[in-house]
Structure formats: structure tokens, C-alpha cells
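User: Quick sanity check before I run a bigger batch. Here is a single chain. Can you write out its predicted 3D structure?
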Amino acid sequence: MKRLLLLVVLLSPLALALGQQWHIVYAFHGRSNTSMHWLALKRLVVYCMSKKPTTEDKFIVTFEVVNVGSKPVGILNFYLVVEPPSGGALNFAKREYIGFELDPGETFVFTTPAFTLSDITSRVEPGVWRFKAAYSTAGYSGAPRQWPEAEVEVSRPAGSALDVSIPQGGVHLLSAVVAGIPVQVEVEIANTGEEPVEAAEVRCWVNDTLIGSVNVTELRPGDIGRVRLQWRPGAPGSYLLKVKVDPRDLIRELDEGNNEFMQIVRARAPDLVVSDIRLPASMIAGKPAEVSVIVANQGDYRSPATRLIVKYLGGEEEFSIKELEPGESTSVSLKVSFSTPGVYAVRAEVNPSRSFIEWRLDNNKLEKRVTVTAEVKERTELMPDLRLKPGGVKLLTLEPRAGMLVELAAQVENIGDAESKSFLVALIVSGEKADAEVVAFLPVDSERTVKLSWRPLSPGEYTLEVIVDYRDEVLEKDEGNNKVTLKVKVEPKPQAEPTGVEEPTQPEPTPTSEPTKPSRIKPMAAALAVVAAAAAVVAAVAVSRRPKRKVRKRKSKYRLG
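Assistant: Done. Predicted structure follows.
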């Protein structure tokens, strides 16, 4: 039964050939050398519908393989290898994963369906074509070199002398390829055949999407025609541009492999970005501050002129942004103010109306925040500076004694750069204010002498402090130069000198354990009263000791009567 099936398979191509006028253009019968798997080729036959095959004729190829070894061979599949005249290897009629074993002595017949060379490759060329029997196992695939191969001379069909082609460099983009902007695609079509071409269709695809079709007409041999198609890239990026002449194979050509052109084309675009908003570290409520906005073009094409909008609480400003080359940047400045303390946002957006296509749109906006604080009154740069002039505090009373009025002179000067308002100069004795004087004002680089007095009640050492701006009413540059300290020694009250006249005795005060409080009568007035009384006593004594003068009565020169 197996032999009968084999005979039918072997005779079927021949019967087909006889029935449909097929011709054997190559035949091998016998047994070749064995392959590495002990397989041998017994038969290789090439049938063609013409005795002299042309590039348009159909072929059938059949071959028979036998296992001459002693072990079964695991076969994945059998197939045909076709080599064009220009080289290369093409697999045809490959039956994937047949998956059977060829036993010792068993044969297998492989037959292709009818095919043309254009079914194998688009580059159908005249010359010697080679057909090879091939098989594959788990660890091998190919046509064994020990097996014979069929060589068939293939020519052009009679009367075929037309040939249109796209020459190398024959596709031109007439302007820069920019996203959103139409670009003209110019295609050159050459007649490289031997006969005139009345008309040929030209089609253009971008990423396998047809963008246009146009006809080129009346091309004589050697002529070059030019056609144009328009393409508008929708977005920036890379595109596959493909152009083909005679895409429907309506012209029987000498060479079908020169009709197509493909190229990767990059559509460029600008990319505007708000790269920075420069704000002060902090702001004061109600005071304007300068803000700068930086805009840069990070794309690969020049950006058109556009607008920039800056928004903040209580304000919105619009600016014009000039054309920017790739990598170029520009900046705008504005004054921004906020009326109350808080945290506020400043927002900037470039190309807000999206008037042209960019690489990215998510970087056209930027927001930054700034902290606004209440106004703090700071010291002005022009301020007075009061001080006691070095060496300017002098004691006017040379030998201070208890009960005496002790006077001081203090020279106060203003070494600042602003006039001082009124201030108080005080004399502090042992921590208590003894005297003070008001200075109404003191101009810059001027001085004023202030006299202060104090009456010590008892002898001893006293600490005197003269303080300028005692109440701290003047805002000064330096508050540490307003005080001078003195040490003053007060001697006891002087004793009265004897006068020779007994003074009226005074009752001695009753001694007490505590010191008596000073009288409310001022000590100086009491001393003056004592001196006056002593003077009156001395005058009375002097009058009493003066001899009495006799008074002579003078007679009047006028008589009564």
C-alpha cells in the first residue's frame, strides 16, 4: 500500500505537467551522497510552463529523499531553498513542524504548489536561479552540500522593455519637517527602460498610512519626471516615509526591485518651558517686589512669537515673548505686591492659547510661592547718637562739704547723623535721682553744657552717675555711651570761729539712739540767722563801750514873743 501511494505521488507532478503543458527544465535521478543523517536525494525535478523559463512563468519543484541508514531520522519538515542570481537564500513551501520519523529504507516525496518567482521575492531578475532540496531536524536545518542543486536559466519575457524607477536620492523634502506645518515631498521618477512610459502612478505612505497618490506621464527612455505630494506631520517625532512607483504592478518592467524608496524622517518642534520664577526670599505686605520669569526653548526648532501670562492674587499681566532659537532663553520682570501677610502663589504660563505644536505641553506652566510678612519698623539709617563728651563731666565745687550745694557741669554732644528731639539729663547719687535738666533738642555735631547740683547732708564717699536720655526717649545708634560715673568725697561741715562774745546758750538736744532727722529749714538759712544774731550781739557790745558824748543845747536865734 505504501509503495502504491509513493508511485502516485511520484507520477502526479508528471501527470500534471503532461495535462497542462508543463516542461521539465531540470531533472536529477539516481542517488546522491548522504547527509549527516544518512539521508540521500534520489530525485530532483523542476517543471516550468515554458521550455525557456522567463521571470513571469510558473514553476513546480519536486524531490524525493530516502533514509539509507540503519536508524530512524526525526524530521521536523522538508522545504525548498531558492537562490536568486544576485545571491541570498530564500525558503519556500516550508511545512512547519511535520514531526515524523523516516525509517531506514523509507522515502519521502516533497512537491511545491505552482509558483512564480515574484511569489518568492519582489526582486525578480533574469539570470541563473538555483533550487535546493532542504530539511530540518531538532538540531539541523538546511540544504546538504552533498546533494545536487537545480540551476535554471531565467530570462525576461519577450516584448518587456519598460522600466520605471526611483533613483537614489530621488525623494526630497522641500522644507524643514516641523510638526503641524505642511511640507512638500518631491519625488523623481526615471525611465530606465527601452520604451516610453505613458503613465505611472506614484504613492506615498507615512507609517503605512497613505497620504497621497499622483501620476507621472510621458516619460521617454532616459527622462526624469517630478511629482509632488503634501504631508503635514501631526506631532513631533520619527516617521517612516515610503514612496513607490507603479504600486499596483500595472507595468511589466525589466526590474521590479527599483520602484520603492523608504526613509526615516524626523519632525521637529519647539518646546517652550517656564524654567524659573525668581522671587525674593520673603516680602513685606504692601511693598512691591521685583519678580523675574525665565522662558526657554528646549526643543529642536525655532519657536514662533507668543504670549506669557503671569498671575498672582490681585493681579494679572501679559507679556510678548519673541522668537526663540533652540537653546535660547529670555526673561521678563514685573512688580508684585500683596496687601496682607500670608503665603501667596505666583503662576506663569507661556503659549497659553496653544497656537503652535510643541514637544511637550506639561512644562508650559510653573508656580512658585512666597511668604509675605507684616511690615517691621526698622531703625532708619539716619539716627542721633547722644553721649557725654569724654572728660566733659566736671565738678564745679572744688571742696565739697556736708551741707554745701555741690555743682557739676556735663557736656552733652550729638555724634549721630540726625537731630535729636528733647531728652532728660539726670544726676543719680547713690542710686537716687538728685537733679535733672531737659534739653529741648540737639543738632548733629553740636554740644550742650548742662549744670546739675546736689547737697550732701553728711560727709563720706558718694557715687555720682550722670545719665543722658535718662528716660530712654530717643532712638539712638549707640545706647551704651550715655552714662558717666564719678566718685566724690565730701568733707565734714566747717567749725565756726570764736568771736569773743558769749553767744546765748542753746539747750542741748536730748541724745537718742537714732540719728536726728534734718530740720525742714534749710541749713543755709539757719547758718545765716546764726551769723546775723552774732553780728547784732557784737554791735550792741561795741555801742555800750563807746564813751558818751555831751550834747550841747543850741539856742535858737528865734525868740518867741
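Helices lie at 2-19, 117-120, 523-545.

User: Great, the batch can go ahead then.
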